[in-house]
Design goal:
Order of helices and strands: HHHH
Number of helices: 4
Number of domains: 1
Structural class: mainly alpha
Radius of gyration: 18 Å
Largest sheet: none
Shape: elongated
C-alpha cells in the first residue's frame, strides 16, 4: 500500500499541484485584465461591459476552483485519507 501512496503523492506533487496553481493564476490574471480593461475604457459603455465580463469570469473561475478544492478535501477527510498522504497541504501552504 505504501508504494501506491508514494506514487499518488508524487503525481500530486509533480503534475496536479502545479496545474491547480496555474489555473488559479490564470483566473486571477483574467480578473486583473478585466479591471484594467474596465478602467481603460471607462468612457465607453461597450468597453466597461467587456471589462465587467472579464472580471466576472475571473471571480467565477476562482469560486469554482475553490469550491471543487473544498469538496475534494471534504471527501478525502470523510473517507479517512489524510492530507499528508495526498499532498494537499502543499497547495494550502501548511
Amino acid at each position: 500500500m505504501k508504494p501506491a501512496l508514494a506514487f499518488i503523492h508524487k503525481v500530486n506533487q509533480v503534475i496536479i499541484n502545479p496545474i491547480i496553481m496555474l489555473l488559479f493564476a490564470v483566473a486571477v490574471l483574467v480578473f486583473l485584465y478585466g479591471v484594467f480593461e474596465y478602467m481603460k475604457n471607462s468612457d465607453s459603455e461597450d468597453g466597461r461591459l467587456e471589462g465587467q465580463r472579464h472580471m466576472l469570469s475571473g471571480v467565477f473561475g476562482l469560486f469554482i476552483m475553490i469550491s471543487v478544492f473544498g469538496i475534494i478535501h471534504l471527501i478525502l477527510n470523510t473517507i479517512g485519507v489524510s492530507s499528508q498522504d495526498t499532498g494537499v497541504n502543499e497547495i494550502l501552504g501548511r
